[in-house]
Structure formats: structure tokens, C-alpha cells
Amino acid sequence: MSNTVDIPQKLKDSLRKFRFARRNAGSAALVVKVNKKELILEEVEQFDNISLEDLIEELPETAPRYIVLSYELKHKDGRTSFPLVLVNWVPPTTETSLLTLHASAFVQFQVTADVSKIIEVRDGPEGLTKEIIDSKLG
Predict the structure, then answer these.
(1) pLDDT for position 22
(2) Which neighbouring-strand residues pair with 67?
(3) What pLDDT, in 10s, does the model give residues 68-78?
(4) CB atoms inside a 10 Å sphere around CB 59
(5) How far apart are CA 54 and CA 60, in angstroms?
(6) For residue 89, which of 22, 65, 68, 73 is within the disulfide window of CB 3.0 to 4.6 Å?
(7) Contacts by 107-115 with C-beta closer than 8 Å and gap 24+?
């Protein structure tokens, strides 16, 4: 199968390490972008124990990102779990060529990241709230 955008082994290793990291408090995030020039996916940054508000502040307003989020979920029975969620961050002001590359790599990235829960965010910060994530995971 031919891919438009490649996923380097370094990113695959980073994803694997992120997936299996032990967490006991707070959410963590691995942010990935499409490198338009080289046609590869690359890690932008990792965050540990970050709030959704702080994460949103770190995301660009004009460029799409994939975010693998280890989300701190408090259950009604008092338990806490850290499910993985793939956030597809696509601001409405994204340029068309970058949007096309981002969309073409999405399924391949989802499979590589091995995350089944997906949250599409196409309307900016108001699309990524605790209430929205809780409802998707509930």
C-alpha cells in the first residue's frame, strides 16, 4: 500500500513508549504534525500532567495536529483510569493543502498509534472540553 505521508520509526517508538507509560495523576499528551516539506509525521512535543486548558494553549490556531491523549478519567464509583484518546485537531483556518495531507495520513496514524477512541475537533478550543471527552468515553 502506498502512503502519502510516512511515519518514521522514531515516532513509532515514541508512540509505543507513550502508550505503555505508567500514569497515576493528570493527563498526558503526545502532539504530532505533518511535515509538509518531507511528507513525514513528526513529534512536536510531549506533555505530562497537563490540563486540557493548557494543552489547548499549546496547539496552533491555523495548523492541524494529531494528539494522543492519556486522559485522566474519574469514574462514578471512585476509580481513576487513563484511557488513550486520539484527538484530531483541525482548526477551521487550516490551509487546504495541509488539511489534505493531514486527512490522508489520519487512518494510518490511528492504526500505528493503536487508539480506537477518536475525538474530532474542527471548531477550535470549544470542541475540546472535559464534558466532550467524558461523554465520548462514558
Answers:
(1) 81
(2) 31, 87
(3) 999 988 888 98
(4) 20
(5) 12
(6) 65
(7) 108/3, 108/5, 108/7, 109/7, 109/32, 109/41, 109/66, 110/86, 112/7, 112/12, 112/15, 113/15, 113/19, 113/66, 113/68, 113/84, 113/86, 114/15, 114/19, 115/68, 115/84, 115/85, 115/86
**45: Cβ contacts below 8 Å, ≥ 6 apart:** 31, 58
Looking at residue 124, what is its pLDDT?
A: 86
Q: What is the pLDDT of residue 1?
A: 44
pTM of the predicted structure, to 2 decimals: 0.92
